[in-house]
Amino acid sequence: MDTASLPEHQPLTVMKRLLPALKNAKNTWLQEYSQTVEAMIRGRELTGKMMELEGILPDGSKFNIKDFHGKPVVVCFYRAFQSPPLPPDMERDSKTPLQFALEKLKSYHADYAEKGLEIIVYFSGREHEDFPEPDETMKNWKISFAEDSLAEGMKNYWDYYGLRATPTWLLIDREGNVMETPKTDGWGEVLEALMKKP
């Protein structure tokens, strides 16, 4: 499965040049769109920096990415979109993107959990109705739903970072910085190399 990193719709330099014009536009829609562009810039500039991320867990407790300083962390941002209905005589015979993402996370868990890898799943979109009941493997993951976090006055970090690709994968090193990762093949190799570092 290919893994997406940060949004690639427009080069960062182009977005930065457009932003002042959008903010100062007389058109209300363009002014509002400037907030989306600003969020995408924020997301694209995460590499090499500490990110902001907090949320509410299913048991009502809170987590903050800062709590994991000193540990490698995989963050999976997932946004659920409404799937078109199938004709009555057809059934889905392929896995959903969410199923693929969870299988990938479970493989990372199997390979590296004992070496200290932490896993965060940040779920946005149609929320709880689409997310499966966590199994034994997932019980120690930090799974957070944007709607619960918003209810507690927190941000929706999918929107805050202007994410577009679902799933979006981020890898955090032991110093708490977002690592540069390949947009397609090779992501697993970067994770393996990180886990070998003391």
Estimated share of beta-strand residues? 5-15%
User: In what order do the strands lie side by side in the largest sheet?
Assistant: 5-4-3-6
Would you state the CATH class?
Answer: Alpha Beta
CATH architecture assignment? 3-Layer(aba) Sandwich
Oligomer: single chain
Q: What characterizes the major β-sheet?
A: 4 strands, mixed
- Helix proportion of residues, in percent? 25-40%
* Count, helices: 6
Regions with pLDDT < 50 over 5+ consecutive residues? 1-9, 84-90
Which fold name corresponds to the CATH topology?
Glutaredoxin
How would you describe this structure to a colleague?
- The protein is of the alpha/beta class and 198 residues long.
- The protein has one domain (12-196): Glutaredoxin.
- Helices cover 33% and strands 15% of the residues.
- The protein has 6 helices and 6 strands.
- The chain has helices spanning 12-23, 28-44, 97-112, 146-151, 157-160, 187-196; strands at residues 54-56, 62-64, 73-79, 118-124, 142-145, 168-172.
- It has a 4-stranded mixed β-sheet with strand order 5-4-3-6.
- Strand 3, helix 3 and strand 4 (118-124) form a beta-alpha-beta unit.
- Helix 1 (12-23) packs antiparallel against helix 2.
- It is globular and about 55 Å long.
- Residues 1-9 and 84-90 have low confidence and may be disordered.
